[in-house]
Amino acid sequence: MEMSASSSLATLTSSNYAGVFLLSSCLVMLALYVATDFFTLAPCRVKLPGPAGLPLVGNLFQMRAGHARSLAHWSKLYGGMFRLALGEREAIIINTYSDVNKTLIQQGAAFQSRPEFRLWHGAFSRALDPDAPTTIGTTKFSEQISKYRRLLTAQTSAAKLPSFNHFAARRYFRLVNLLSDSAKSGVAQDLGFHFWTTTIGISADILFGQRFDEDMTRLVADVNIKAFRQRSLATPVHDYISLVATGERILLTVASPLRFLLRPLGISSWLDSIYEAEAHAKELRDAEVGYCKKLLNDLHERLDAGDHTPSQMGDLFRSINDGTLTPNEELRLATTLTGSGMSSGTGLTWLAPLLAVHPEMQEKAYRAIEEVYGGETPDPLDTDRVEYIKALGMEAGRYFASIRLGFPRETHEDVIVDGISIPKGVLVVYNSYQINRDPQRYDFPEEFVPERWMDGHYGRTDVKQPKVGVPHLNHGAGRRVCMGVPNVNKMFYGNLVLLLHFFKLERAPLGDAARAAVFPKLRAIGESSLEVHPIDDQVSVCDPQALPLAAGVKLTPRDPEALARWLAEGHRELDQWDRPNPTDASLDSEVVVDPGIRGHY
């Protein structure tokens, strides 16, 4: 009996201890959960709901699991605007079109600045020179930035674009040659190189007023695609936690000579990744600054010699004509616009493989082109003549939302939104992917429906409505909206109308040779599904611009003889193909052939 009582007492005591321990653990976890805001490095100045994070780092690592899906999940829980703690940064995420209207549009002055990030503004932009300029679009707001935007807006307006048609026409001819060569190969190929070198090539040509050869075109396209990846959100960690950045600096300095000793501990590989990331950023910056400086010097030499070729930078210099721009200011303007065709190239590279598995869309597009042009080859410079082609472009911008988180903003001044006080200096991110799927703005938001933009419809198929506001958030809204939208839309249309007029598309796997030729090579890590899913079929879930995985597209000419005739002589019907603009004294009537590419002018 005594032993039994003693045993029971011991059991009861153990049970109590276990219960107390469990209860204590729960209380500690609850306290940590409730007090997360007090343990994060980010200030808690904005009284908006948001997900609980981890002590110190907040929601930083949760974001790294994937921008689109993480934010989409949180938007369902916390609504149109919520707060995140990203290391030391307090961030507001905007998820609905109505909240964009309340902030970026109605109170645009308060939301017109930009945040700075260590990777982009430090390791990339200022890697070679502490005073090196960043692009206009990634710089904090100032009266100087306002001045730059006014200067560039005059050169990027829709009214100005026709003066550069002769450059675009040659690029479109080169595109059809590339597509024709791909069709002749008889095998599926990825079309990324075709589209990016066309759209970024057009941007570079009209910026500096000269036709670039294949090597320069490839270089500019490659650098701009890869440089954009330096602008991601919530990564790397040292962008958001100063202590980590300082620790990395110390480790890189102190441990560098001992890397071979640290390799067995696994530390060396981590250091190597930091070295490689920063070295890559500096390499990209070196290339960008190098070719922009060279091209600016070449342009000044031509202007001094009396060249009147229309170009964005040349026309800008002629309009100022007082030497008020410093070399750094010129470089800032040039780096801002050099890669402005990237968005169009990315959208086309997403769209082509989707169309390849939808022959009904291809046929509808072809019939629409036939109806407008009566069997003749469409003029790619005659933008928006074919409503269905325009609708395909607008829907691709909405559906794929390649610029996933827009270009982050920072509050320029204190502001109140719906009674919530938001102080100056808060990081603001408009979640383009989620906003482009706002059910209040779009019906069937998860489906690719070009008809939502046709016959008086503007975003919804169930109602006709006036064309008010931007169709989607892929290029921003309000102040600091992308200045190059007219050119982006024009290039998208020109590429797409020629592609669908001349060729049928079908999906097929990439062979070894075609996979080796994927541009840029980082897209060859996998092959897109037939669905061409905007999230699952991207290179990285945290890229600021969602790059599609490689996709095999087999091209078949609709009319091989008509295609051959157009390549031989029909292309000369393009407006301003061989004749210069009235003020263009530098271009003669001869077509200049790039010796590196047969027939690619």
From TrEMBL:
Its cofactor is heme. The chain crosses the membrane at residues 20-41. GO terms for cellular component: membrane. Pathway: Secondary metabolite biosynthesis. Keywords: Glycoprotein, Heme, Iron, Membrane, Metal-binding, Monooxygenase, Oxidoreductase, Transmembrane, Transmembrane helix. The keyword Cell membrane does not apply. InterPro entries: Cyt_P450, Cyt_P450_E_grp-I, Cyt_P450_sf, Cytochrome_P450_fung. It is a single-pass membrane protein. SUPFAM superfamilies: Cytochrome P450. Pfam families: p450. Heme binds at C482. It comes from the Eukaryota. One of its GO terms (molecular function) is iron ion binding. It is found in: Membrane. Gene3D superfamilies: Cytochrome P450. Belongs to the cytochrome P450 family. This is Cytochrome P450 phenylacetate.
